Amino acid sequence: MGTKTITPRTNNDGQIGSSSKYWDKGFFNTLHVNDLHTASSSTLSANGISVTANAGILFEGSNADEFETVVTAVNPTADRAILLPDASGVVSLSDTTYSAGTLLDLSTTTFNVDLTEAAAATIAAGDNIIFLDGGASGTHSKGSINDVATLFAGTAASTGLSASSGVLSVTDLHPVGVDGSSGDILADGGNGTIVNHGTISIDGSATNGQMIAIDASAVSTGNAIKITDSTYERASGHIELNITDTATSTTNRGGNGIMKVQYIRPNTSPVAAGQSLTSIGTEIRMDDNATNVGTSEIIGLDVHCDFANTSGTTTAVGVLTRVGGSDNNYDIKMINDADDSEFAAIYVYDGGALGISTASDDSTGNIDIIADGNITLTSGNDHHNYTSIKRRKMSVTSSTDHDHDGDVVYFGAADGSVSQGDICYLGKDGSNNATWFRAQANAESTSTSLLAICLGTDPATDGMLLRGMVTLDHNTSDNNFGDPVYLSDTSAGDADMTAPADNNEVVRVIGYKMGNDDEIWFCPDNTWVVVTA
Q: How far apart are CA 482 and CA 523, in angstroms?
């Protein structure tokens, strides 16, 4: 028959079949139509369908009405291929939103999820994550963060980990090979393994900077470093700085000290009016609250500086203070533990002058200097230098013989007859050596010289009282307070309440009675009277 061609009279003119009358079958190698319609119960089979216009493929759906679904293609810039998976299901669109409870088969479908527009949030205990459930035919499931943490923790006996409310914690490192003692420090063994140390060893090969640097700026309470010890069995102390100085150069030789404490308050942070601030560089507090039976001693600060023999000039300073600002500052301030308003202070001000002062709210800030040896006050050698005592208190001595309080000279030797408590005059022996003899008012030669009371057996060692309070070792009567006391004319070395009256005897007042136990104020008069009878 050959090829037959059916051609419409004009373009877009002509029709095969109608909307109500369909051909049963049609077979074409190539079919070009503007619109192709099939019956609702029919199918269209073709090795390939080429849509050359923008109208696309139109799907009427189950009902022939005014609504259709059109599949069109964006104008391609290259050959493209869209593959449908070998599976049954619903094809998802890029803007499809799935409601709660909708399951997605992740085993056969790949999703490219763009989370750049998702709102940021913090994962917390109780939140869930989506995961591929390998035990449920590849479907997806949700699981809580708490369950994930528990999964990672595993069995504590094997991993040393535990999980609580989604938080992983290390509870025991023994299962992973760390076998240390209580309080050991963990470190990298150098090959990525964890090792334990009872002590810390720090490589000091660095020539500058700090080997340990701690920034405690955020600590408002508590401590940057704290050492706790319930036994205090530390012969070498809790912190030991053992420095051996082998350098011979004076460069960088401890200018800031072996231990340095530096505190700075910048001018931009002044203490506000009405506020009070106390800043302490180093606080040492030691309290012994035990009921001790034996001997207990606590020492807040023990400083020991020592030099070996050397040909150079060496100076050891136990405590060096340098307090600036004004003369109202104290180098050392000692406070009464029961009352902070009561204190004693030592300070250095202009010219290197030393001040010692006390303060109290009830005028009890006394200064007591007690020594079992000598106390020496020495001023400069220049005649302009002096020792000034504004007010000197002398107390009436006790009832004990020879008790005294006053001016004492350590000078000369004692005549063989002199004993403690004797009133003596100063003379000389046959070799013109200064010698103290017992005084007596029966002659001018034994009563008109410098008088003093012997305080022992050796004047150069025990001293001679020139003036002051003293308790005599012989009777001077009672109830005679303030009466003059005379040098005795009858007993060498004694005093008497009755003035001498015989010819050529000397009347010399040596003091005044201060009590009924022979206490007197000893102050020998520089004038005397020789009796003429």
A: 13
* Size of the chain, expressed as the number of residues it contains: 533
* Alpha helices for 323-478 (secondary structure H): 459-462
Kind of pairing between the strands at 464-471 and 57-59: unpaired
**What global pTM score does this model have?**
0.53
CA 407/CA 463 separation, integer angstroms:
10
Collapsing DSSP states into helix, strand and coil, what is residue 145? helix
3-state secondary structure of 157: helix
Written as six digits, the tokens of 445 are 């030669």
**Cα Rg, the chain, nearest whole Å:** 57
Nearest to 67 by CA among 79, 76, 75, 58: 58
Q: Is 438 helix (H, G, I), strand (E, B) or coil?
A: strand
What pLDDT, on the 0 to 100 scale, is given for residue 530? 97
Locate 371 and state its tokens: 């020594």
CB 323 within 8 A of CB 345: no
Alpha helices by DSSP H, 18-88: none
Local mean pLDDT, 10-residue blocks, the chain (533 residues):
68 68 68 66 67 71 80 84 79 62 54 62 75 62 76 76 79 70 67 67 67 81 80 69 74 68 86 88 85 88 79 80 75 87 86 85 83 86 83 92 96 95 96 97 97 97 97 96 97 97 97 97 97 93
> Phi, psi at residue 194, to the nearest 5°?
-90, 130
Cα 165 from Cα 147, distance rounded (Å): 9
Q: How far apart are CA 450 and CA 435, in angstroms?
A: 11
Q: Is 54 helix (H, G, I), strand (E, B) or coil?
A: coil
Residue 110 is classified by DSSP as -
In the structure encoding, which two tokens stand for residue 338, read together? Answer: 């029961």
Task: Determine contact, residues 61/67, Cβ cutoff 8 Å.
Answer: yes
CA-CA distance, 240 to 199, in Å (whole number)? Answer: 14
DSSP SS3 for 339: strand
Q: Measured between alpha carbons, how far is 161 from 154 in angstroms, rounded to an integer? A: 7
Q: How far apart are CA 166 and CA 145, in angstroms?
A: 6
Task: Sketch the domain layout of the chain as residue ranges.
Answer: 319-366, 404-530
DSSP letter at 402 equals T
Q: Which two tokens mark 247?
A: 């350098």
pLDDT for 207 equals 67
Residue 208's alpha-carbon distances to 201, 205, 211, 212, 252, in angstroms, are: 18, 9, 9, 12, 12
Give the Cα separation of 486 and 495 in Å (integer).
Answer: 6
For the chain, what is the largest distance between any 2 Cα atoms, rounded to a whole number of angstroms? 201
Spatial separation of the C-alpha atoms in residues 415 and 434, rounded to whole Å: 10
